[in-house]
Each structure stands twice: as structure tokens, then as C-alpha cells.
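Hi there. Long-time user, first ticket. I'm pasting a complex I've been working with (about 814 residues overall). I'd like to know whether the download I got is complete or cut off, because the file seemed smaller than I expected. Thanks.
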Amino acid sequence: MIQHTSTKDVRYPLGQGAGSDAIHRDPIYSYAVTQLHDDSGLTGTGLAFTLGEGNDLVCKAADFYAAQLKGKDIEEVMASFGHLFYQLSNEQQFRWLGPHKGVVHLALASVTNACYDLWAKKRGVPLWKLLIDLSPEALLNTLDLSYLEDELTREEALALLKENHAGRAIREQITAAGYPGYDTSIGWFNYSDDKVKENVKKAVAEGFTAMKLKVGSADPERDIRRANMVREAAGDYVKIMLDANQQWTLPQALEICSRLRHMNPYWIEEPTHPDDVLAHHQLATAIAPIKLALGEHVPNRVIFKNYLQTKCAGFIQVDAVRVGGVSEFITISLLCRKFGVPVVPHVGDMGQLHQHLVLFNHIALGNEALFLEHIPHLQQHFRHPVSIRGGVYQTPQEPGSSCDLII
Amino acid sequence: MIQHTSTKDVRYPLGQGAGSDAIHRDPIYSYAVTQLHDDSGLTGTGLAFTLGEGNDLVCKAADFYAAQLKGKDIEEVMASFGHLFYQLSNEQQFRWLGPHKGVVHLALASVTNACYDLWAKKRGVPLWKLLIDLSPEALLNTLDLSYLEDELTREEALALLKENHAGRAIREQITAAGYPGYDTSIGWFNYSDDKVKENVKKAVAEGFTAMKLKVGSADPERDIRRANMVREAAGDYVKIMLDANQQWTLPQALEICSRLRHMNPYWIEEPTHPDDVLAHHQLATAIAPIKLALGEHVPNRVIFKNYLQTKCAGFIQVDAVRVGGVSEFITISLLCRKFGVPVVPHVGDMGQLHQHLVLFNHIALGNEALFLEHIPHLQQHFRHPVSIRGGVYQTPQEPGSSCDLII
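Hi, the file is complete. Here it is re-exported in full:
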């Protein structure tokens, strides 16, 4: 039984240009941490990610949701978590502050993730193992499919899960091999040209075959020059992703993307405002076969549904510490499976939680095991930091979701 | 000069079913109030509206924005408010909590609205008068048109304002006649059938020719029965609007709206999730010529742009205490003017601020003077409550935006 709940506001300044992009020049990687203290002595830990200022607001909102879990048994909670998620996310007064977005939804992510962590700890297994072992029905009971009725009914979701049961045994072998990573840290926005080139060489030497450069400069020539520079340093066979962090207008994006074509980007990420479904549709159509990667700032399944319906997203970057936690992440992954679009999460959690979720996505849903973003910051703050060898995530074995911080 | 700033969390329980709809069974009408204390002795007051829980979070976020106004002269602030709005709404760490939505954007609304209020008070005129007397260039300098470049450049906006200069003198006569209202309070969700019928008769007797019924029940038969009942009580010539408060799934909406067709609703409001642009497009196409009214929960100009681009909204219900305040309200009104869609605001402010804005929209932008929502609650808490006679808003004459509360 959950005896009491608490939240913590933890912030980690990075410094020296790390984490910088076209809009976030001086981010402070921060977590709104929810802890569920069980009478078994176990503590479930859940995270939502922010960039510093306002992290306290997310904690306060998480307190409100978490209070409703007091006195409950985690197995009972998770047996119908989809219903609880619906109730919490539609709480009649709090809902006005979203709905299903912003501070309140980040808070719900933190609380939801704490529930999944406690659940896995109580069962004594890593979260990926718990999830892949759930029956299709038990899994669906953890999800809220409301507002998806036009694309994914419960029956359709069930059929999708059952169809993908075949081939699981083979896909499960990935837990021995490890899940591939890509390096996001070679080209932070404020890094000098020399530092970027050096980082590219280091990443290739470490075994990474995919890496990301931050673009979205006020000066498009800088973006184009640096993109070409990374291609030259990395060679033709490395996948290079370009991330504009929403800094282009649609007319700018149309122009710059066409000029970036010849350096052969694997994707272009967040070219413009994350709410602008139609602009992304127009851009994707214009720059095909170059693909867009979208979702870092998309707060809920409804907007992801629109992105998938317009077929503008070549990759979906849903983040379980941005949407309403593991539950909504899985719902969105099911939608992606239906639409045949790979899920490549943004990792506000530094990959700690997502290393579990991408294993589940591949093994249980049959999503492609493409690669998972790797951000090397904050490792020293996690009790069980991710382990990357030769550019590959080593499968976590500790019980839970690997989100315990040393605090 | 703004000497200091403060925020207040004020909440007014309504009781007895007032304010209730399909999702909000027990709302507490609340304002996150920002006050800018000028060394002239004047105080600018701005509001953001919530339904109770979490109003304190909006206040805390508003404190963060308001602090950046300290020491500034309001005329200087407003001379380039569009730039300040861009800066505040893209503040590099806070932005993560939106962007441009949820708690942080409600907070920005409160601060923005306080700026406009102080500006009008300092000039000693009601806000509507200040706004209609601005030159097109001065008005545009108060707006942030970023992410609208594909539909509304600064040049296009300027041309639109200049085109609509003709005919202003005639349209300005509305300030003598008053702006028509419609009655939102005849059919709150929890009101009994008898109370609704009684309210319809009272509203007609008071001179209202348009009124709204809350639908979106779990039982569609209740919705249909009550809609027919209101039509019968009101007669054929009263405009009746139906408001589902997002409670239908798309398949449900498609079915129920077709069954509501024969009672001839003037619009159907918020049929499903406010983020679901494509569902609204599909529904609007299916139920034409019945029109949808949308926007109460839409947080920013980018999403409104998508709604207008898909042509699914027959009426745009932007609320200046939900989007980023007066500035973004005007930006969205300009977009609506371009697309030829009437602006009929949702009035989280109980009409206090919007009575100014619809006069501006009609006189300066040439938007149709359709009608403005009237909610009779909270009148006793405002220093200068709206005055409705014969169903018509009397033009406010006091300096400012009529948002001062007795607190």
C-alpha cells in the first residue's frame, strides 16, 4: 500500500555550452520527481523533465495528482491504470490548465512514471520485462484510448498486440545484443566548430553510427556550413540528424531544408512550431524524400494522432517525461505502429526510462529497433545510470525503471 | 514608471449548478490577477481565468513574467509590446513548460492584460477607445506575428488594417447603440428541465435573441430532448447554440450532430477534443451547413491558424484570458478577418475585457458585430461590472479595461 507521497525539485546546471540549442542557450536540466512510498519499504520514482525555471510548478501540480494515490495498492492501481489516467487527466478544475498539456500534463507524467516504477520494483523485475510479459488485455487496461476512437479502438489495439505476438522470441534477442544508441552531444548549438569536429571523431571511434547537430541559427549560412562540416568529418556512412528546435518559420524551413538536401540528413528535427500540424505537412511534402522527426514538444496522443494522420512525420519523438508518462507513451507507440512510423524518443530522462520503453516497443509491438538518443549528461546523478558500450545501450537488469536519483 | 508588481489568487465558488457543463460539474470561477503599480498612483489590472484548483500556479508563473516589467514606463513597453511578448513567451527555460500553452501562457495573459489596462488608464480612456485610435503601425507594434508568416505577414496585416479604415465612422456608431449579447446561462448542464424552460422565457423577456444550452451528456437522448425543449420554449426565431464541452468522441459527434440538425442549432460548440484539428475538419464537412464554434480551450495563434486553414470553424471563440492576452487576441482576430470567420469570444472575464475587444474588432477590423457571450456571474465582484440592457452591452466609458476587482 502506498503510505505517503512526496515530490522533489532537482536541478542540475550543465555549463560550458552543453545542452544548448537554438532557443535554449543556458538550460538547467531539471526533474520534477514524484516518489510513492510503499509500506513494503519500496519507493516508486517518477520523473518529468524541465529546463529549470518553473520546475517547482510541476512539482506542486504533481503533489495534487499524487495525493490521490495514498492508501492504494499499486497492483490494484495498475490493473485499471487507463481509467485512473482518464480520471486524473480530466479532473474537472485542474483540466482547465491544459487540457492534457503544459505544467499539469508534465506533472501527470511524473506521477504516472512513479506508478510504473513502483509496479516493476514490487514485481522485482526491470520495467521492460514487466511490460513485455503483460497479456494484451492487461496492457490495454493501463491505457487511455479516449479521443482516438476514429483511429484506434480498443478492439483494434488488441488485434495489433495479438498480431505482433508472432516473432517476439526472435525480437527478444535484442536484450542480449543491446539497443543501438545515437549521439546527441556532438553538436550542441554553442559548441565551436573545432569542438564539434573533435566530438564527431570521438563518437565514431566509440562506435556510434548516428549523431545529431543543432541548427536553427538566425544565420542560415552557419547552419549549412556546420552541417556540411559534420558530414565531411563523419564520412558518408554515418547518419546525421539536424535539429532546428522550432526556430524556422515555414518559409525559412522550406528554403533552408532544400539547401540542406545535398548533405543527405537522415532527418530534420523540429523545423518549426510544434503546434503547427499543417506547416509540417506542407514542409514534409515539399522536401520528400528527406524526412521530418517530430514530437519533443508534443504534449499528448491527440496531437500525435493529427501528425500521423497527415503523414508528415517520418519519425515520432514522443518523450515519456513530456506526454502523460509511460501509459500515454505506449498509447502513442501503438498509434505509430498502426501508421508504420518509427518511434525514436526524445530522452528528457537521459535514456534511463526510455531504454526500457524502446525494448518493449520493439519486442511487444514489433516497432523497428532503430536507435535511441543518448545524452551523456547527468549520469553521475542516477543510481543506475545507463550503460553504453560501442554505441549500444546495455539492457538494464535492476528492478524498476532506472529512474532513481541520488538525492 | 512601474514601481512594483503583484499577483493575487481570487476564487469565487458559484454553487447551485451555475457554471456547470458536461465536464466541469463544480467549477470555482477564479482569476489569477496581475497588478502593475505605477508611480503615477494608477494600477494596471490583468486577469487570467481558471476553474479553481491550480489558480495559484498561474499566479506564480505570472510573478515571473511581471517581475520583468519593474522599472519600465508603460508607454515605452507598449510602443514595442509585440517584441516583449515574443521575448517573454520564448523565455528559454520557462518555454519548456508550454510552449505557448497551459499555465505559463495563462500567466502571460494575466500580465499582458495588466499592461493594456495600465496603458488605457494612463491615457485616461477606455481600452476600446485607445485601441481604435492607434495607427495601424502602432497597433502592429503591439503584436507578435511569429509563426504566422505563411498566412499573415506584417505587410499583409498592415494592408488589412488600412483597407478597413473606410467605413469606421459608420461602424463607430455601435458605441452608442451598444454591442448585442447572448445569454449563456439559460441552460447550465446541471439545471433541471423546468429551470431551463423558465430561464429561456426570462431571457427572451429581457430582450436576448440568442442563448446557449449545455449538452455533451453521457446519454445523448438527454441532449437531444433538452435541445428540442429549448427550441420549443424559445420559438423559431431565437438563435440557439449547443455546447458539448469536448465530451463527444468523433464517431459520437458525427451521430449526435446529425440528429440535432432538425432543431436548427445556430452553432455546435466544442464537440470534441480542442487539440484535434482534423476531427473538427471531418465533422464540419459532414454536418454542413451546421457550423462549429471553436476556441475556448485553444491556447495560441498557431493552433487557431490551423483551425482557420482547414476551414472547420464557423465561429472563432478566442478568449483573451486564455490565449496570451489582448495582444494575441488581436493577432487572432486579424487572422479571422483574413479568413472571413466571425470572432465570438468565450468570456472567461465575464465580458469585462471582451466588451472592449469586440468593439475594436468591429470598428477597426471590420469584423461582424454578431454578439458577445453574457455570463451574469461575479458582477458584484467587479468595480465596473458590465451593463446589459435589453440584451445589449452598454459601451464602457471608464478608463482602462474594466477588469478591476473589489479585492
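A couple of notes from our side: The two ends of chain B are 23 Å apart (CA to CA). Chain B touches chain A through 61 residues (CB under 8 Å).
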